[in-house]
Amino acid sequence: MAEFDICGESIENLPVEHIPVLADILAERISLPRDGVMVDATVGHGGHSLLFGRTLGPEGTILGLDLDEKSISRAQSFLKDLTCRVILEQCNFTEIDQKISENSLKKVNFVLADLGLCSRQLEDSEKGLSFLKDMPLDMRIDRRIQTTAADIINRADEKSLADLIYKFGQDRASRRIARFIVKQRQTEPIRTTAQLANIVSRALYRPKNKKRERIHPATRTFQALRIAVNDELGNLERLLEVVPDLLSGGGYFAVISFHSLEDRLVKFDFKNNEKAGKYEILTKKPISPTDEEIERNPRARSAKLRIARKIVDN
């Protein structure tokens, strides 16, 4: 599939550091009026907002939300030349209804939630989200959160750790991983991403003649901790709950998820709202990126896009 252009510019040539995932498909499926209102619930560096903002006139509005103050700052830089009104708020997207009200937005034509992390967040040594280099074991996207990943790893009992890793990481070896963690922390506290990654790798060690997994052994444990620290699934449930009442008739809701726990929540919410007569589901199956997009942007590999449209009020 050829890349979709907005205002004659290729997506890959956009002046943003973070390539927006599945942007070509979104641009094909969603059209905003010149005076439209888009709420980018996870504005990041502003890639998706820049694409759609270029289709809006001076009477249009983009409201961008993000927990990460560094992302808000970068988005401000990238979106400053748009002719439409741009409002950026550092907040959790669970506050979406409050921010819409505070900014006196009467209608919303499009809500977008890209639930993925950007490469700068993964590389940020203050956040401690990645095991690719040694960082403090933190994982808080919002620095106002009190509990870090290190707090959970060093304080939770073995059963609670195993349950967390199984529930949010979907790792069938969760009990073994938890056992190794508890044994290691009796010797010294686990404070860095490298420490934790090494412990999980030892717990999941397999002889060389066994089939190797394509992902790092610690991937699922790190996912589980990040979800727990940031209450990611609880926040997503709140967003899904309030969006139907925020959209104007014919308005769109698009969610890009990156693992099955997120996608399952979106799938069932869309179906429930369809049964209730609120949504028309435009993606009967989730849309995945093309091979070309994955080659250009490897982080898009696990992305799944679902789109619903609010049924016009009678």
Beta-strand segment tally: 7
CATH level-3 fold name of the largest domain = Rossmann fold
Average pLDDT reading: 89
| Class by alpha and beta content | alpha/beta
Query: Treating each run of at least 4 consecutive H or I residues as one helix, how many helices?
Result: 13
Q: How many individual domains? A: 2
Give the proportion of residues in helices.
40-55%
Fourth-level CATH superfamily of the largest domain: Vaccinia Virus protein VP39
Strand content: 5-15%
Could you describe the largest sheet, including whether it forms a barrel?
Answer: 7 strands, mixed
**Strand order in space, largest sheet:** 3-2-1-4-5-7-6
Global morphology? elongated
Give Rg in angstroms. 20 Å
Name of the CATH class of the largest domain: Alpha Beta
> What is the string of helix and strand elements?
HEHEHEHEHHHHHHHEHEHE
Describe this structure in words.
With 314 residues, the chain is α/β, with parallel strands linked by helices. The chain folds into two domains: 11-120 and 232-310, Rossmann fold (3-Layer(aba) Sandwich), CATH 3.40.50.150; 125-230, DNA polymerase, domain 1 (Orthogonal Bundle), CATH 1.10.150. 41% of the residues lie in helices and 12% in strands. The protein contains 13 helices and seven strands. The protein has helices spanning 23-29, 47-53, 69-79, 96-102, 119-123, 149-155, 158-169, 174-185, 193-203, 219-230, 232-246, 260-275, 291-296; strands at 37-40, 61-66, 85-90, 110-114, 252-257, 279-281, 304-310. It has a seven-stranded mixed β-sheet, with helices on both faces. α7 crosses α10 (219-230) and α8 packs across α9 (193-203). It starts with 22 loop residues before the first helix and ends with a strand.
